[in-house]
């Protein structure tokens, strides 16, 4: 497993890594927004069917195989006399070197077969995975990241005299509740029982409201 992509990203954000977390996130957002915009504009000017870097790589592979000889075994199956010799199957999209099926891009052997035996140098794109097409690249960067205003900038027009006032609260009818509303599962409070002076029992009534029978 290679860590090249991680190291490249770390170098890209080297200055931002020492920032506080909020500034770090904002810096990353800005860098990605600028990068996506730049790549979107670059891709809009491309005229080839595959990305320019891959187009140049394909040209080098075609040039590499100009001295190789190609022999046809049957339709779609060819032998390329390179060092070492390899077998190319156009119908299955494979080459015995493993390069074509490994990354979906034509290896030098497959490109040589298509150019010398099939005469389709102008339509090699059909044998290349759509991942390398310019259209796929454009779809990757077709969306944009929207700019974000700074949080400490108030959202009002210049010269505005608007003042945010407190909300109008209307007092509810009746006496206000003074007892706290207890949470679910919280123990309910109970009034401490009193001792009635008439019946001499612990209860929640007094002498005046006592209804117990007595010997008097």
From TrEMBL:
**Protein's name according to its UniProt entry:** SWIM-type domain-containing protein
Lineage in the entry? Eukaryota, Viridiplantae, Streptophyta, Embryophyta, Tracheophyta
Cite the SWIM-type domain residue spans from the record: 86-118
Record keywords, A-Z:
Metal-binding, Zinc, Zinc-finger
What are the recorded GO MF terms, alphabetically? zinc ion binding
Query: Which source organism?
Result: Rhododendron griersonianum
Pfam families on file: SWIM
Q: Which residues form a coiled coil?
A: none
* PANTHER family, A to Z: OS10G0104700 PROTEIN (PTHR31973:SF166), POLYPROTEIN, PUTATIVE-RELATED (PTHR31973)
Question: SMART domains, per this entry?
Answer: ZnF_PMZ
């Amino acid at each position: 497993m290679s860590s090249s992509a991680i190291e490249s990203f770390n170098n890209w954000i080297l200055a931002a890594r020492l920032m506080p977390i909020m500034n770090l996130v904002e810096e990353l957002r800005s860098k990605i927004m600028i990068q996506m915009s730049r790549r979107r504009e670059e891709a809009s000017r491309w005229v080839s069917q595959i990305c320019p870097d891959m187009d140049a790589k394909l040209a080098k592979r075609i040039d590499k195989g100009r001295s190789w000889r190609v022999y046809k075994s049957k339709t779609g199956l060819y032998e390329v006399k390179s060092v070492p010799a390899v077998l190319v199957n156009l119908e299955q999209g494979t080459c015995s070197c493993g390069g074509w099926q490994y990354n979906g891009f034509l290896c030098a052997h497959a490109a040589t077969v298509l150019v010398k035996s099939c005469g389709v140098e102008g339509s090699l794109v059909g044998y290349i995975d759509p991942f390398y097409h310019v259209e796929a690249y454009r779809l990757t960067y077709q969306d944009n990241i929207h700019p974000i205003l700074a949080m400490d900038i108030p959202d009002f027009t210049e010269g505005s005299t608007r003042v945010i006032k407190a909300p109008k609260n209307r007092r509810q009818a009746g006496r206000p509740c003074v007892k706290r509303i207890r949470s679910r599962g919280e123990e309910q409070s109970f009034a401490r029982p009193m001792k009635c002076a008439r019946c001499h029992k612990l209860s929640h009534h007094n002498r005046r409201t006592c209804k117990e029978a007595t010997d008097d």
